[in-house]
Fold these 3 entries.
Entry 1:
Amino acid sequence: MFSAWKSAKISGPIPPSSFAALAGATVLLNLSASNVTIGKAEDRKQLCDSQSRRAAAAYVFAAAGAGESTTDLAWDGQVIAYELGEKIAEGERFARAPKLVIADIDVQRIAQERRRLSSFRDSVRAHGEAIAGFTAIPFNVSPAKGALALKRAVDRFPFVPDDLTRRDSDCYEAYNIQVSGLAKRLEATNTKRIVIGVSGGIDSTHALIVAARAFDLLGLPRKNIIGVTMPGFATSAESKAKAWALMNAIGVDAREVSIEPLAQRMLEDLDHPAAKGEPVYDVAYENVQAGLRTDYLFRLANKEGGFVLGTGDLSELALGWCTYGVGDHMSHYNVNGGAPKTLIQYLIRWVAEQKLFDAAASQTLLDVLSAEISPELIPGANPQSTQAVVGPYELQDFNLYWLTRYGMAPSKILFLAHAAWGEKYDYATLKHWLGVFLKRFFTNQYKRSAVPNGPKLVSGGALSPRGDWRAASDASAAAWLDELARNTPEALD
């Protein structure tokens, strides 16, 4: 059972539905004897959109339609439904026959959002007397018999808007948030130079184009950005070529330093089988290379009087796919720490399409996007695939969003994932990668307890211990995995 309140007109500084929401209503119904005039339909949408956000609720608006008197007015019968600022259903306007609009409303999501919003709880306390007069209209919802398909669409890429106009706007904001954050840190530390490792992959590529824009903003020469590509045992010629092409196109101080001699010496000192030519490519083998790269960058920053710009992204932090301490986990400032992998891919494409750099740089950016995501640490892997180990980033970013943004139970995340991704991945595959996500997410919390500063980009999506995600370093995934096992089948019939 859940409750709804009938609401009066939504105009006015404080519409009655605001108090209804504070009194506990999750679904606000506005049955309005509203006539239509030019532009009024869009005004209603904006009001419903904003009120569903302000009240942290679902807002359903139904205007009067055919059958009303047209002595001096006309009616369009507009029916629209919004949930937390998202339009989930809309009916046909000016219909002559009765129309039924059906929408799925996620009341659990609304309740979770209200728990997260301290301002909502403050308002409940502040307006206790005003909301005391609202009376709930309880109604029971009988559970459906059998599986029902969702009437609403579930975004496959929740960190990236589907609407092209909004996507462009969000990319502009995300990119400039990163640029502004880095510019402020450069000013605050009076730093004129930075050092960045450039691999030819998407993360270092994006960090580099953010840095270049920040230096332009501050009037600093791009040659003060020291880009270093550091080939190791498995670095491909293609990746190294892309790194060089990008650094040259951006116009930074481009350098190359092979880590193979130092890595070989360290493997020998460790008495590692790979030092003798044996094909033993374990974690120690991989992290010798990752650690040496970061160690070199820090010492180079000391020598050049600058700081190290990090490149690791939000998705990697969520999955623990980073070498702790002296590895890609650490830097002096990380512009990508709040950016999920799926968003970074769109940001790079957006920068190329907006022609923020010259044609050669834009083409190189598009070339980088076409490559397999790989750490390139194991020889002969052709190439070594990150997603084969941690799962497709498009799925893991989906799981990350619903876990951290709304705290959804794994069984519900799987339900939503199947609705969004069921045409591409079967149910068993979705469940498998969700299990991998849960294990990796909680096991690697200790890495997120010590991360560099970096700008938050998406609401509710940052994992900084100083911000949105303050959790115990020894957290366990057991309860989450148990819920997934208990409340979901192994496969769908």
Entry 2:
Amino acid sequence: MSLYDAVADLPLTVERHERTRHERDTSSDFTRVSTTFALSGAGATGRGEDVTYDAPDHDALAAAAPDFAAFEGEWTLDEFSRALDDVTLVPEPPERETAHHYRRWAVESAALDLACRQAGRTLGEVLDREYDPVRFVVSTRLGDAGFDRIERLLDLNPEVEFKLDPTDDWDAALVGRLVATGRVRVLDLKGLYEGTDVDTTPDPDRYRLVVESFPDAVVEDPRLNEATRPVLDGHEDRVAWDYPITGVESVEALPFAPSWLNIKPSRFGTVRSLFDTLDYATEHDIALYGGGQFELGVGRDQIQALASLCYPTGPNDVAPGGYNDPDPAPDLPRSPLDPPVGFGPR
């Protein structure tokens, strides 16, 4: 049975819904805004988090009149998902098209959570999978703090592992200090972003510095062109893809068969697209790790739960949210995380 077949026929009763806006400063020098969708019915409530990055999109949602009728009814999870095809979830044209997938995931994950709760079963029980402890890495941009940010986190937790963004200002001296920590597991080149605050230049010299200096690290989202492609010759089994991954078709469209995928559930929009991609990865022996979107609430619990069920030993970018604070607390949980539930009964 496919993963989606296991959840598609779960009964779902929706009687009302609510939305809550959240806001928090982060270590990456931006204020994170998100919106929690809560679907309720039959004495239970399921939640999902909209991780759209642009605050005006959340403001427009908060100002919109709630369309309770669109969600209300007796469904199976699959029927509810199909009905959402005809629902306007984004009331105003968004700043970026990715908002459509992020908001759809918020509603679908809330529905999955609610369906599990109404069935009295966790998602692990529905999928017949065990929850395993979750290895996690801490994702951070060094920014103005530079290596001081790394030192601070290592002081708090000497065993912490990192997923870092090699930005245009990285040089050999900084790379040498990072190599000496022995704690860098993933390097996100962010070569596929355009028109965002995290864009980087596809510089072949920086790519070579990164690839050669961290021979055991996963290298994520390079921009391949005539100058950068030769740098990765022979290293294809270390390349991971994140930004373009929204479903099976996007995996099949990659420039070469992938060895690694970063799974960010919110990028997929629907439960079906996510679960079909997880099945595809299993069938094609693709290694997986989970990715986060600076979730502020239930979304973090859910990506940790999915990592626990599907890729617990990967270098998962699902660290507890406190690691994203500008000044992390000294008592943050350490990797691996105790098995979380995320969907269904607590």
Entry 3:
Amino acid sequence: MYHNPVLLHPSVDGLITSSCGTYVDVTFGGGGHSQQILRQIDKKGRLLAFDQDPDSAKNVPDDPRFQFINQNFKYLKKFLQYYEAYPVDGILADLGVSSYQFDTPQRGFSHRFDALLDMRMNNAKGVSAHQVINEYSPQKLSDIFYQYGELPDARQIAAQIDKCRAEKTITTTTDLVNVVTPLLPRGKENKVLSKIFQALRIEVNTEMEVLRLFLEQTVEALKPGGRLVIISYHSLEDRMVKNFLKSGNFTGTVEKDFFGNPLSPFSLVSRKAIVPEEQEIESNPRSRSAKLRIAEKK
């Protein structure tokens, strides 16, 4: 299976407001959410889906209502206008890495496999994890591990990498694991390794910047009454999404007009984040950190 879609029914049910509407899945991946959207819209409905990973094109359904866009979702507005689908009735984003990407060793996303350090969502573009590990300054590496991995010992990790790469290039995921292993706290090795790899992946794919650019475009891309549905997996993403849905900005501060009315472009459909039920976590452990937030364009 390419990917087991997380919070499938709560997310799609929260997205669809009209069976004949136009919707966007900006993280197509294995197509799980898209397939469910297609089931819930009628023959007049329309679905456009983005994914920058060329491998995801293998999962495109044969459906006249569907348009696949093999691009990063930071280009949301540009391609919706190109396909004359602007504005839309709903936008869905599942910000997690697909099971396929994690479980394909040569992609270099997981510390469980020995592979070349890559981690690019589109491995034909951009800076790879190999370049980040071997070419970034110790200070920049430390900042990445602290900001994106929320690792308190980020400086020590960066210093250890700098020391080891001076003797030998760090080429593979196993090389990196071996370099940082002496710093891993006993009993928490996998947790810390996951945070190190998460931080590298976020940096390689400029995920936070891409998310910011995407969110800013959703305000104009949605019709009044249109839904924005986002599933996030770590606190950095969720904080940015939560603040934006609440206030229309990334500080979370709600601005008010002269009369004291809030100026946020959205109203929250769910006050609190929706999380997976125990049954889903049991059948799909990777869903355990997922948080679903839904808002409606005013």
